[in-house]
């Protein structure tokens, strides 16, 4: 029995939410229907993002003709959407959908940008759509690269990699400087390592993990010692970076939640500095 009412409610809401997401994720027809409804809005957001970066590019010291877009998972859907539908101001000069999926009716325009596609061979969500995307671009005579790794699954960009990962949810920790308000007037130089899964804003307002953050000044020395041990043992280093299976919930979050709740935020505009 749970002693904390608020915590129990959060846990119940989280389980219920992900059960519903899991059901949607398992039904590809339902997923296509969802993307068909919100896809145009997401693509419009991506087009506007290109314009926002390109219009003041010269003032920012960027080359307006060297601005592209990269998107992961749901963001790959946005990236491909903008590569397919754009005007002169919103056209990316290159596009890179990484393990993206769920596009249909590929009518490649005459001014389609060069495309870079990357995914894992064991990604059931992305393999067929990515192959179709590659074939469509190639048939239209546009530059395209396709890179398929043997293993990695869907969302390998956020899977366990390296040393500092959360034992509860499997997501990586990242460095978080301490905020001025948290210092409370005391000169505290250290920062924290925080689990990605504990950031609700990344997952549509739902925290995946309640693990506590760690002080970097207490962890860095231990991490460095572990790095040295890995470098001294090649077999251990190989084992550390071998793909590791993670709970299905992480795959669900990487795909469906991002797609339904934060499609545009998963795509990134990539400006390239002007060559002087």
How is the secondary structure organized here?
Elements: H1 5-26, H2 28-54, E1 62-72, H3 74-84, E2 95-98, E3 115-120, H4 127-139, E4 144-149, E5 173-176, H5 180-183, E6 192-195, E7 214-215, H6 216-232, H7 234-240, H8 248-261, E8 267-273
Assigned CATH architecture of the largest domain: 3-Layer(aba) Sandwich
Strand order of the largest sheet: 4-3-2-1-8
Q: Work out the helix count.
A: 8
The major β-sheet equals: 5 strands, mixed
Question: Based on the structure, what is the oligomeric state of the protein chains?
Answer: single chain
CATH topology of the largest domain: Rossmann fold
The average pLDDT is 75
Kindly provide the radius of gyration, computed on alpha-carbon positions and rounded to a whole number of angstroms. 21 Å
| Helix vs. strand class | alpha/beta
CATH class of the largest domain reads: Alpha Beta
**Order of secondary-structure elements:** HHEHEEHEEHEEHHHE
